[in-house]
């Protein structure tokens, strides 16, 4: 029986959600094989079913009581929700009935042309369609597809996925707790395409579709449903709180016997606590890793019959918990409420951590002893549940081992480096300021660089082809010598530089073929980082990353990129950008130590990158790009906390960038994010050129730069590299023309919206050729207008 409270005297264990990708990234291989035509839809769905079965079996074996279903997705759970309720934009050609899989993937990835299903029906027409916008899931590095809403939006049940997967689990012997993204969070995550439309005004039309899904789940045997409303940890106005009351009142009236576990995560409920506690739900989940202070107030205010799900194990980070300390906080709550109205859980879905630490056979043993991945976190949960249920002696050895690991980490000399602390203490205010303001620097830079109006460039990486990946893997296994591997990389680099020259790019990059990942590559050369072999987590779709583990003080023993830059610049006369990853992005895309403030760790990284910047300049680099793709995603979910974060994040960027002369042009790049709210902070970074994603939003993001009167130069991304679709010259020229209506021509650079690492050459070549042609067209138009 699926339970959220116990009749056995044992506190139940829940997981909220688990990684979807498979121990060996089976989902990635299956998706990419399907997209390339190597397997058919039936084979893809069979692999997905086997991954779900393995997830359920793993959780059952580890003692999880409340096993989730519908936490699996082929691409993204927000996209799944849009499909469930029929929120399919007209451009994708769907009108009614179940949404075809190729339509689903067109929404996720775009389509180059007619997409034909297995029955021969075209579902995506004409020249193809772009993908939905993509942005960060709250303050994580997971990306979700942004739902679109229009005036008169029609909702209808278009997918039975949640019900199908519940029934699928039941056939296999697992009575699961289905997971749905809550309707209020879903609407707030979406985007109104019509001016003046408030997505929350659509709630009344949306709720009956949710009720139909809930009714089918109940009829299939589900007693509980997990409803995720992470919007509860953000700043809500009265209208949003009223929407929550309307939604959950509607559910309670329509399905009085169905129990809802209302799930909040990524922070504390704060001023939304009373709203959450007043909703007619059977349970409430709390993120006690991010906001442990809320437990006392919630346990005091919560009505007697409300089941509390206590998210005490950090679902966002990889550090092993000190279980004895957690028990001290849990035991009073269990004594007060009893084992029948408490459950133990991670702070959020385990989607954000790797699957199993046991696969890591090459990690430093000390560092490994401090870590816990999804499997180990489930073990921690069951240990806590056993101990807090009155059986502490049965898990005494595990509790003692947990405490010993915490103490060993605290005292380890691998964690603490006095020289780093001394250098950080010596930072002066002058070290975070460029010598001259931008208005003076830009004159010097333009005179030195001599690039045309609308200069063309790329963000940094070029396709990591199967040949590149194969060579890297063979080198890693010792099958290819260092000399042979280096020669291969030089050939790839030289060919890419020659091709950039041939198509007429103005500012070149070397392609980054020597780099495995934009964070990992640097972390592997810095002290204080450890790396896994199988620690993959999903970033979006089939894009997975292995975040470094930042376990100690950070220092740079030697230059990291200078020799590759020297080689690249030596074979071209055009400017070659030096390519670095910024300190805030390295921090936000790593599993960060939790024993010091994040701001301190970021400044340590900034000093290491500063050394690399000045070494590149000394080697002759005229342009240095310091990517801060993740600066927006680190923004706290509550506005009251923004200033503190932005203060140290901007200072860290300036610390690494401000040591160069006026003539050296500093670029930065930012990925999919909403920038409007932090535009002043972006300006304060004082980069000479910023490149940003604007293609999916049709340059809407530039509105913020106009109202702020951004003084520096901007490269608005003119095509979406996360889609295989090749944009036309007309499309790119239209976007650039729109940019010229918002910005001065001399401010505008022309580039894709992100690096090209994940794309194929057959997609990249025509897209960049079209991009250069569009820039040339704009130059011609500008010259004609000046005559």
Structure, explained:
The chain is of the alpha/beta class. The protein has two domains: 134-411, TIM Barrel; 419-781, TIM Barrel (Alpha-Beta Barrel). The chain is 42% helix and 12% strand. The protein is built from 27 helices and 23 strands. It has a seven-stranded parallel β-sheet. A five-stranded parallel β-sheet has the order 18-20-21-22-23. The relative contact order is 0.09. The model is unreliable at 114-126 (pLDDT under 50).
Q: Which structural traits does this protein have?
A:
TIM Barrel, single chain, 787 residues, 42% helix
Task: Give the overall form.
Answer: globular
- Which percent band covers the strand fraction? 5-15%
- Rg for CA atoms: 26 Å
Span of the ends, CA to CA: 79 Å
Stated plainly, the CATH topology of the largest domain is called TIM Barrel
Estimate percent helicity: 40-55%
Mean of all residue-level pLDDT scores: 93
How would you concisely characterize the structure shown here?
The chain has 787 residues and is an alpha/beta fold. It is built from 27 helices and 23 strands. β4 (134-136) and β5 form a beta hairpin.
């Amino acid at each position: 029986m699926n339970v959220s409270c116990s009749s056995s005297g044992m506190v139940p264990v829940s997981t909220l959600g688990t990684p979807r990708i498979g121990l060996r990234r089976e989902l990635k291989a299956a998706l990419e094989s399907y997209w390339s035509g190597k397997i058919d839809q039936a084979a893809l769905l069979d692999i997905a079913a086997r991954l779900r079965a393995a997830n359920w079996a793993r959780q059952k074996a580890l003692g999880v009581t409340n096993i989730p279903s519908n936490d699996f997705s082929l691409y993204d759970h927000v996209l799944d929700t849009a499909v469930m309720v029929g929120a399919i934009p007209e451009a994708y050609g769907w009108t009614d009935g179940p949404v075809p899989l190729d339509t689903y993937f067109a929404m996720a990835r775009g389509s180059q042309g007619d997409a034909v299903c297995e029955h021969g029906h075209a579902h995506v027409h004409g020249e193809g369609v772009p993908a939905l916008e993509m942005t960060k899931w709250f303050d994580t590095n997971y990306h979700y597809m942004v739902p679109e809403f229009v005036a008169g939006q029609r909702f209808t049940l278009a997918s039975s996925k949640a019900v199908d997967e519940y029934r699928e689990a039941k056939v296999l012997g697992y009575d699961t707790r289905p997971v749905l993204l809550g309707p209020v969070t879903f609407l707030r995550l979406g985007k109104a395409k019509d001016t003046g439309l408030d997505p929350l005004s659509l709630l009344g039309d949306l709720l009956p579709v949710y009720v139909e899904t809930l009714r089918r789940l109940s009829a299939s045997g589900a007693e509980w449903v997990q409803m995720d409303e992470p919007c509860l940890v953000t700043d809500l106005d009265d209208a949003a709180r009223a929407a929550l009351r309307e939604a959950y009142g509607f559910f309670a009236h329509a399905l009085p016997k169905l129990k809802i576990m209302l799930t909040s995560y990524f922070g504390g409920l704060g001023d939304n606590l009373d709203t959450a506690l007043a909703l007619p739900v059977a349970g409430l989940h709390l993120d006690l890793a991010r906001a442990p202070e809320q437990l006392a107030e919630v346990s005091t205010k919560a009505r007697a019959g409300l089941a509390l799900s206590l998210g005490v194990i950090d679902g966002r980070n990889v550090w092993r918990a000190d279980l004895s300390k957690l028990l001290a906080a849990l035991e009073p709550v269990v004594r007060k409420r009893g084992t029948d109205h408490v459950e133990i859980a991670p702070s959020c879905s385990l989607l954000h951590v790797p699957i199993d630490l046991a696969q890591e056979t090459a990690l430093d043993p000390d560092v490994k002893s401090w870590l816990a991945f999804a499997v180990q976190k489930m073990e921690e949960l069951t240990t806590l549940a056993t101990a807090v249920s009155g059986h502490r002696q049965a898990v005494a050895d595990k509790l003692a081992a947990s405490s010993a690991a915490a103490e060993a980490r605290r005292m380890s000399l691998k964690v603490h480096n006095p020289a780093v602390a001394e250098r950080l203490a010596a930072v002066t205010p002058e070290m975070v300021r460029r010598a001259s303001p931008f208005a003076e620097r830009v004159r010097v830079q333009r005179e030195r660089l001599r690039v045309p109006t609308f200069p063309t460039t790329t963000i940094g990486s070029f396709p990591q082809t199967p040949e590149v990946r194969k060579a890297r893997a063979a080198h890693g296994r010792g099958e290819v010598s260092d000399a042979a591997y280096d020669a291969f990389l030089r050939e790839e680099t030289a060919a890419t530089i020659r091709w950039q020259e041939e198509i007429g790019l103005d500012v070149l990059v070397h392609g980054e073929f020597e780099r495995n990942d934009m964070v990992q590559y640097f972390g592997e050369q810095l002290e204080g980082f450890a790396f896994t072999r199988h620690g993959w987590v999903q970033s979006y779709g089939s894009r997975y990353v292995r975040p470094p583990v930042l376990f100690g003080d950070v220092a740079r023993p030697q230059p990291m990129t200078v020799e590759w830059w020297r080689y690249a610049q030596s074979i071209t006369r055009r400017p070659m950008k030096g390519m670095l990853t910024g300190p805030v992005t390295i921090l936000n895309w790593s599993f960060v130590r939790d024993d010091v403030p994040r701001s301190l760790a970021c400044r340590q990284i900034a000093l290491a990158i500063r050394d690399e910047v000045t070494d590149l300049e000394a080697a002759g680099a005229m342009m240095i790009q310091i990517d801060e793709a993740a600066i927006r995603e680190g923004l706290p979910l509550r506005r009251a906390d923004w200033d503190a974060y932005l203060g140290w994040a901007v200072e860290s960027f300036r610390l690494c960038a401000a040591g160069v002369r006026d003539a050296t042009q500093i670029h930065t790049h930012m990925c999919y994010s909403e920038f409007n709210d932090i535009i002043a902070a972006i300006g304060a970074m004082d980069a000479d050129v910023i490149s940003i994603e604007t293609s999916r939003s049709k340059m809407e993001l530039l509105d913020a730069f106009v109202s702020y009167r951004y003084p520096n130069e901007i490269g608005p991304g003119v095509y979406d590299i996360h889609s295989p679709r090749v944009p036309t010259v007309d499309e790119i020229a239209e976007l650039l023309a729109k940019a010229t209506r918002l910005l001065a021509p001399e401010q505008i650079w022309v580039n894709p919206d992100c690096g090209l690492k994940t794309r194929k050459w057959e997609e990249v070549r025509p897209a960049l050729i079209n991009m250069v042609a569009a820039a040339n067209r704009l130059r011609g138009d500008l010259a004609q207008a000046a005559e």
